[in-house]
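Figure 3 (text version): structure tokens given as input.
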């Protein structure tokens, strides 16, 4: 029985899956959008949304200790302080008045080699709501 089993394993062991999701999230934050399979995009969406939410809290924090703590939590995923600064200072302020839904997945067709469904996984532009 699969009661309360929510995670999609992507046919990978745990450490490989975590690395894959973190790499997809890193690419989305660096590039703004990537092309990947629909299933991988849906799995990575949760991490990207949580990171943006933490970055919004860090950006709005008046207490510098709280801001540093939240930035370090984000840094646990990437181990790259320049990327964390970009997320907290450039990306998060754009979504300050938005309550979730920072990404979208647009299906673009099927991959020629194995017919996997491909999608464009991107951060939403600021003007859309």
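Below: residues designed for each position.
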């Amino acid at each position: 029985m699969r009661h309360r089993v929510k995670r999609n394993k992507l046919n990978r062991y745990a450490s490989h899956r975590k690395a894959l999701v973190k790499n997809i999230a890193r690419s989305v934050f660096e590039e703004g959008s990537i092309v990947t399979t629909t299933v991988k995009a849906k799995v990575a969406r949760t991490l990207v949304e949580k990171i943006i939410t933490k970055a919004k809290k860090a950006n709005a924090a008046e207490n510098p200790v709280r801001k540093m703590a939240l930035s370090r939590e984000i840094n646990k995923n990437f181990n790259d302080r320049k990327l964390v600064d970009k997320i907290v200072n450039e990306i998060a302020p754009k979504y300050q008045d938005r309550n979730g839904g920072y990404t979208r997945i647009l299906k673009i067709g099927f991959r020629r080699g194995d017919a996997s469904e491909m999608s464009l996984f991107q951060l939403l532009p600021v003007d859309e709501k």
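The two ends are 39 Å apart (CA to CA).
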